[in-house]
Each structure stands twice: as structure tokens, then as C-alpha cells.
């Protein structure tokens, strides 16, 4: 295993440990939900390019959000890094700079979290369409 792979694995393990302390559920659930959201919204463009949204929102119920508030920068960065690695493995291109935002939401469909994606507002729709034609 290369040094970079070992470092990535260590960072992922630390992130997983943080989620495990916060919630007794599988800590990989949110990362998997982000990956699914990315995969579900992939658009095949010309020349084999695959574009995906670049803004992801993770909504957490109040108690989980409160527990993560002091680590919010690290959590957002860990989620962003995990999603960037996923996209790289799949050969995806983001529709602009990648951002993962974690927010409080009193009610989410599954009672724990909700993940949604979009193309950031400052990225023009025309630019996205030019990539597809």
C-alpha cells in the first residue's frame, strides 16, 4: 500500500470513528448516501465525459447536528474528500468547485439525515449544457 493510500485510509478511519461516536448507526451511511446521490445525478456528456452536481447538502437532525457543531469544518472536509475520491474512481467531473454543506434540519425523511445535490448557482446552466453537446 502506498503512502498516499495509507494516509487516505487513516483519514477515513478517523472520520468513521467520529461518526460512530456521534451515532450508533453505521458511520458509512452518510458517505454512501452522498455517493448514491452523485451516481444518481450523473449526466453522460459528449466524448465520454460524465458530469455530476458540485454542491451537496447533508441535513442532520438537531441532536446529531449539535454534537457535530464543534467539528463542522472537519466533518464537511471529510465528506468532501470522500466524495471527491468517489468521483475520481468513477471518472466523474464536477460541474464546478465541489462543496459539501452540513446543516440542521428538525425533520428528515429517515429520522437521521437527508442528502440532496445541485449545481451551484454561480455555475451557468449554459456552461453545463455546452459540456453535454
Across the major sheet, the strand order is 1-2-4
Please state the average pLDDT score. Answer: 79
Structural class: alpha/beta
Q: What is the H-and-E element order? A: HHEEEHHEEEH
- Specify the biggest β-sheet: 3 strands, mixed
- Gyration radius, in Å: 16 Å
Percent of sequence in beta strands: 15-25%
> Count of DSSP helices?
5
Q: Shape, please? A: globular
Query: Which segments are poorly predicted (pLDDT under 50) over 5 or more consecutive residues?
Result: none
What descriptive keywords fit this protein?
single chain, 133 residues, alpha/beta, 3-stranded mixed beta sheet, 6 strands
Describe the structure.
With 133 residues, this protein is an alpha/beta fold. 50% of the residues lie in helices and 20% in strands. The chain has a 3-stranded mixed sheet. A 3-stranded mixed sheet has the order 5-3-6. A hairpin with a 5-residue loop joins β1 and β2 (50-52). α2 packs across α4 (72-90). The longest helix has 20 residues, at 3-22. It starts with a helix and ends with a helix. The mean pLDDT is 79.
Brief sketch in words of this structure:
Helix content is 50%, strand content 20%. The chain is of the alpha/beta class.
